[in-house]
User: Which sequence fits this backbone?
């Protein structure tokens, strides 16, 4: 993987954008080390909840791209684009729900996706669809993102809120909503619902401490079974990411 730019975009808050950003960043970083690539660069554009930037090991750069009046600040956004284009390497950009619409509008208005592609970057949008009560809103977000651009999509299915199925029992990926945009999807990653008292608690502990899986491995604050369960989760996610058509 070389010279890729990954935007994590979904208009609904609390659906797992930062979780996806951290997982993706750790997977790419592992590839960069193995392939001798330039270090991964990470950016957090969330105006209010800059959680991604609190992961010190990832050296995330916080770029608040909006003004107090909720408009995109052209100078800040231009600086972000220039920073991405100044050197080769892979980039992950986490975006908050509060900046989703303005940022997407600015990216499209300025034809930023084309600029990145013309500059030799492979661009991907990672969008999250959640289960349970979040399914409708996040599915609509998936559709609006797919219709707004021609950028390849990676679909993350978050089962934390419930299974991704309608009242009739039809899975989201079996729906017409998905079928209409399936050609754009390069791959799917399932954030599986696991035992909340074990796997769930361990992942929550790791995320609350803002640690990477590698840091957990070396930490004396996690016991051997907590480390094992986190290893199982990340092995599964990394194997799914390996299968995406990058």
Assistant:
């Amino acid at each position: 993987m070389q010279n890729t730019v990954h935007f994590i975009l979904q208009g609904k808050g609390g659906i797992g954008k930062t979780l996806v950003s951290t997982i993706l960043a750790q997977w790419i970083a592992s590839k960069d080390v193995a392939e001798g690539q330039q270090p991964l660069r990470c950016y957090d554009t969330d105006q209010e909840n800059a959680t991604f930037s609190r992961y010190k090991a990832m050296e995330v750069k916080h770029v608040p791209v909006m003004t107090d009046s909720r408009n995109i600040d052209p100078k800040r956004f231009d600086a972000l684009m220039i920073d991405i284009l100044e050197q080769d390497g892979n980039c992950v950009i986490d975006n908050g729900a509060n900046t989703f619409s303005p940022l997407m509008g600015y990216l499209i208005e300025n034809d930023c996706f084309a600029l990145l592609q013309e500059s030799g970057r492979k661009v991907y949008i990672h969008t999250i669809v959640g289960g349970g009560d979040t399914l409708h809103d996040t599915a609509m977000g998936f559709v609006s993102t797919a219709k707004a651009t021609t950028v390849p999509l990676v679909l993350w299915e978050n089962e934390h809120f419930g299974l991704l199925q309608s009242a009739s029992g039809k899975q989201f990926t079996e729906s017409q909503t998905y079928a209409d945009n399936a050609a754009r999807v390069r791959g799917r990653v399932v954030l599986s619902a696991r035992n909340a008292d074990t796997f769930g608690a361990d992942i929550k502990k790791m995320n609350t401490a803002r640690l990477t899986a590698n840091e957990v491995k070396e930490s004396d604050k996690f016991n051997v079974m907590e480390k094992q369960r986190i290893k199982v989760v990340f092995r599964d996610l990394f194997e799914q990411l390996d299968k995406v058509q990058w």
